[in-house]
Amino acid sequence: MTLRDSFKERVHRAIQDMKALGYDTSVIENMLRRGPADHVAYRLLATDRLQTGLRNLVDGGRADLCIESIILEPEFDDLFGVELRNEARKRLEAVGYTTGQD
What's the pTM? Predict the structure, then answer.
């Protein structure tokens, strides 16, 4: 399995967990129908706007399910560059979640 495939699988597991918790996953699922999970991650973090889903997951104590947290999982370091990982960390911190990483 490639690293991209592992990321896609991880994102899909997170979506299933979100659904089980009652979160609306239609936006991310629609995005994933139009492109690979890693491309979706880049698109989400390329905007200046914080996604509502990020706020909802962090407020609900499930930051581990948001794409920003998944990007920061060590196994995906080689898939995403330093700039994108820093942006993911910055967004998490902007909604009050501390990543514990420098």
Answer: 0.91
